[in-house]
Each structure stands twice: as C-alpha cells, then as structure tokens.
Design a protein that fits this description.
This is Protein N-acetyltransferase, RimJ/RimL family. The protein is α+β, with helices and mostly antiparallel strands. The chain has a domain of 118 residues: Aminopeptidase. It contains five helices and eight strands. It has a five-stranded antiparallel beta sheet.
C-alpha cells in the first residue's frame, strides 16, 4: 500500500515510487550505518528513522513532492531513496539521493536522479533545483558534477551545519 501520493517513475532498471511500510527496514538500516548515514544527515536509532520516514510522508502532503523509494526491478528490493526535499529552513527545493550499501557502485543514484529531476521539471514545473552536499561527501559531489550541477556556494544549513549548495542545469538544458 502506498503511503504517499508519489508518482510511479521508471527507468530501465528502476522503479521510483511511493514509500511502502515494507521499505522502512531498509531505510532504518541505512540510517543506523555510521559510515553511510552521516553523508545524508545523522546516524539515527530505529525510532528516529521512523520519525524521518513519517516526516517525509507529511512533506508530500504539504509540498506535493518528497523522497521516494528506489526499487530494483530485477529483485524488487528497495535500493535507496531519491526525490525532491524542501523542509522549513531549506534554501530552495533540493534533489537528493541515497543508495543502500548492497547496491552501491552500480549507477543507481545517477539513474534515479536523472529521472526524478526530469519529473520535477516536466510535471512539477520547477525552474531550478539544487543539491545540498556536505563538504566531506566526495561521492555526492562527484555525482552532482556528473549530473551537470555546479558548486554555487557554502552556506549554513539549519539541519546539517556547513553545507555546499550545488545548482543543477535548468529545464531548458535538461528537457532539450
């Protein structure tokens, strides 16, 4: 059962869709990982992960967009999350991504981000997107660069502290 009004987006290898309760265990496992979680925020306990999961569902109802589960078509397993995020205190809508450990290094974040960005421009009518990336997150900076985003500035993120804002190409470039 879908928990959000998210669309169902597809690529050759992925389904990008609403959160389901079956997705929570994978997300909580990611957020408890002291190596991977800090690039996305903090290391969370299971109950803190639950609050973030529920918060994202509310985010969809407030903004009409949010994070979605990225599902591997071949296995049917959740392999990460990707979506548009813009909570209180954020400078503007951000496209963000996470790939779970078993799926790293397969181009999944790139494939999901390309599809979600296209949806944001075509369906939501957004005119610009950013990615907010910690200065220590080299992998996300490399992915942002691969996506055509450019480092714009460092700023103080209300949730993450010092953060870098990367500007993605606009709809005129992406949808051409």
């Amino acid at each position: 059962m879908s928990l959000t009004p998210a669309p169902r987006l597809e690529t050759d290898r992925l389904i990008i869709r609403s959160f389901h309760m079956d997705d929570f265990d994978s997300f909580a496992e990611f957020h408890a990982d002291p190596v991977r979680a800090p690039g996305f925020g903090e290391v969370y306990t299971r109950d803190q992960s639950w609050r973030w999961f529920a918060c994202n569902i509310g985010h969809w109802h407030i903004h009409g967009y949010g994070y979605m589960t990225v599902e591997d078509k071949e296995t049917g397993r959740p392999c990460g999350i990707c979506g548009i995020w813009n909570p209180e205190g954020w400078p503007e809508p951000e496209i963000g991504w996470v790939v779970y450990e078993a799926f790293e290094g397969k181009g999944i974040a790139y494939e999901a981000a390309v599809r979600v960005r296209r949806w944001a421009y075509e369906e939501l009518g957004l005119k610009t997107l950013t990615s907010n990336i910690l200065s220590s997150n080299d992998r996300s900076q490399a992915l942002a660069t691969r996506l055509g985003a450019k480092y714009e500035r460092t700023y103080h993120n209300v949730h993450m502290g010092e953060d870098q804002l990367w500007r993605h190409p606009g709809p005129d470039e992406v949808l051409a």
